[in-house]
């Protein structure tokens, strides 16, 4: 079955920050969608997230535009898939951010989370590094499709703290993996089969730290895409908006 994607995204500085260090991409032409949440100060964070988005987009465009010009073993050869391409593109973004950080003192220590998705037939590929998230909303239920690379997430898995404890934990913003903080990065790649009327949400932790999963499910399920994005951002801001907030929602539909 062939699908088409309806998409919408919004980003908001929040109530406490003076600058938006989040970046996002909606590229319907190549079917690439990205949310990146930068870190490293008001200069480095914004630059890192923009550089990640631009680099990943550039590589995916190369793979789509002229595969023979960019033959890379295991990436765009016969046995490779979209996940391999996303992994390579994010690795290149990490290398580029790392090099920029070491070439310019004002960017030292910068990095970014990255969550990206592409659809290939019925298969939705998701790549993520850090604690920006992807969710699936289907049949009035919500499922988190990514795993946070954060200190709190590791403590939950180890049984040290509960999910309830995690939301207000003082270390909840400490991530254990990011794009660009080190030259090489380990990217999680997952693949999920989609169905007609599925909705996919990508977001930075400015949303997920303040809005419960079930609230996200209800807003996404009850509204069209622009209204859902707007309501989710308003909800996060009504609870303090202590970080930048970025949301992309994709609606999967049959391509007749």
Question: If you had to describe this structure to a student in words, what would you say it looks like?
Answer:
This protein is of the alpha+beta class. The protein has one domain: 4-Layer Sandwich (Phosphatase 2c, domain 1), CATH 3.60.40. Helices cover 34% and strands 28% of the residues. The chain is built from 7 helices and 11 strands. It has helices at 41-65, 82-103, 151-157, 163-167, 205-208, 213-222, 225-238; strands at 3-12, 22-27, 32-39, 111-112, 114-120, 123-129, 133-138, 141-144, 188-193, 199-203, 245-254. Strands 2, 3, 4, 5, 6 and 9 form a 6-stranded antiparallel sheet that branches. A hairpin with a 4-residue loop joins strand 2 and strand 3 (32-39). Helix 1 (41-65) runs antiparallel to helix 2 (82-103) and helix 6 runs antiparallel to helix 7. It starts with a strand and ends with a strand. The mean pLDDT is 90.
């Amino acid at each position: 079955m062939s699908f088409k994607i309806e998409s919408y995204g919004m980003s908001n500085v929040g109530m406490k920050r003076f600058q938006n260090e989040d970046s996002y991409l909606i590229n319907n032409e190549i079917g690439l969608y990205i949310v990146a949440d930068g870190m490293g100060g008001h200069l480095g964070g914004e630059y890192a997230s923009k550089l990640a988005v631009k680099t990943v987009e550039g590589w995916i465009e190369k793979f789509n535009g002229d595969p023979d010009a960019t033959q890379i073993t295991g990436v765009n050869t016969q046995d490779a898939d979209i996940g391999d391409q996303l992994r390579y593109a994010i690795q290149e973004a990490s290398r580029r951010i790392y090099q920029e950080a070491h070439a310019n003192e004002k960017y030292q220590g910068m990095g970014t989370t990255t969550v990206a998705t592409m659809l290939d037939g019925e298969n939705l590929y998701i790549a993520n590094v850090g604690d920006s998230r992807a969710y699936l909303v289907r049949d009035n239920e919500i499922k988190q499709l990514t795993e946070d690379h954060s200190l709190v997430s590791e403590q939950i898995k180890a049984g040290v703290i509960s999910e309830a404890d995690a939301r207000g934990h003082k270390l909840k913003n400490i991530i254990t993996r990011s794009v660009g903080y080190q030259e090489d990065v380990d990217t999680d790649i997952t693949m999920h089969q989609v169905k007609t009327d599925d909705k996919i949400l990508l977001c930075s932790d400015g949303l997920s730290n303040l809005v419960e999963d079930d609230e996200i499910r209800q807003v996404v399920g009850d509204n069209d895409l622009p209204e859902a994005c707007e309501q989710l951002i308003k909800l996060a801001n009504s609870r303090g908006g202590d970080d930048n907030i970025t949301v992309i929602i994709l609606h999967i539909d049959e391509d007749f």
